[in-house]
Batch of 2 targets.
Target 1
Amino acid sequence: MHTDDSTVIGHQETYAMNQTEGRLDRGNGQQIAWIRIEGRGPTVVFLPGYRSDMTGDKATALAALCAARGCAMLRFDYTGHGASDGDFVDGTIGAWAADALAAIDALTQGPLILVGSSMGGWIGLLTALARADRVAAFIGIAAAPDFTQALMWDAMGPSEQATLQRDGVLYVPSQYGEPLPITLKLIEDGARHHVLTGHIALSCPIRLLHGQNDPDVPWQLALKIAEQAASQDTRIILIKDGDHRLSRPQDLDLLCQTVAAFLPQDGT
């Protein structure tokens, strides 16, 4: 967010006073790392993307917003991500969605605002469906439900599919760093957790932010989510020059404005 120096300092002090962090035992010998800001509800829960973590620009921008507003926030790393235990290649959509539910159930109370980035949008929709009575709003940032089928498996050529079926893992180039490992169990498990099946039974407000220059997740996917969502309070916000990450200052401002609309308006 664009603020003057004195405001930034104030935000940092509030953030430091109200922030706690720890590790949640998943019951299988692994722990997931989490950071929580105490405050008023509803609690903002940030759900990172594939190979992303809770220290990224979008998560920290929302943390500053919540600290400044005196509102509660939870962010965490799925198993195999960031500071959490586990190996990334062992993860699946079902396992990461279970991490999200475990963190929410153990570390939050009351209404929730779920904010999911890319794969986190899929995890967020699964979480919202599982805890529909608690979700006050869902915000997707380049949300990518069902991407293991449409954007991974279907995008592979026959030789790549054969390699994946034979070896159980396929490494593909990534513009974000080291080659991306795609496992057969990720694809197979993803098919069991599809949400774009004709009807998404969510009645809470839904906001979908998507860049029209996104090279990874087509912006038309936001239209599919909106078409299938039961909520009549569903809005798509397209950023014409936006990429997949949507982490530029103007993108972060838009995200914070979108989330702030669902936060208590009194106070700072």
Target 2
Amino acid sequence: MPAQAQSTPRGGLLYTAAQRERRDRSVWTLVQGVLAPVQFLVFLVSLALVLRFLATGEGQWVATVSVVVKTGFLYLIMVTGCVWEKVVFGRYLFAPAFFWEDVFSMAVLALHTAYLLTLAGGWLDPQGQMWLALAAYAAYVVNAAQFLYKLRQARLQSDPPATRARGEVTA
């Protein structure tokens, strides 16, 4: 097993010093930092379009395209996230620091993929497909919250203890 996979942080820390250094040097950290907010913006637009279709029956095509685009961004961020996890932790998925986030990500991927399958197979009517998209989006929001929580933890753990004690943390 590679050394980077063997070293585990102690005391509830997300990263060892070596993992933090790899995280901070990796281009994949920047990639994730760019893709995450872009994906969230795509999600917000798509959510509005899906809700509009469900409320009015109008805009089925554009809502459908928006869900497919959102799903594409999800796949992209998942693949690049796996590469990031490999660089930082020495494994593509389920590193201890992000185990539950990765588990829930699999559920998010499954729901988005189920949407694509129903779309391609015509297994649900357009309303059913959009309800499935909303279920996928609800799971995505929970998963995004998990990652935001971990981001906040990482920032808090990166701040010097004296700064945290004075309440100067801005993360």
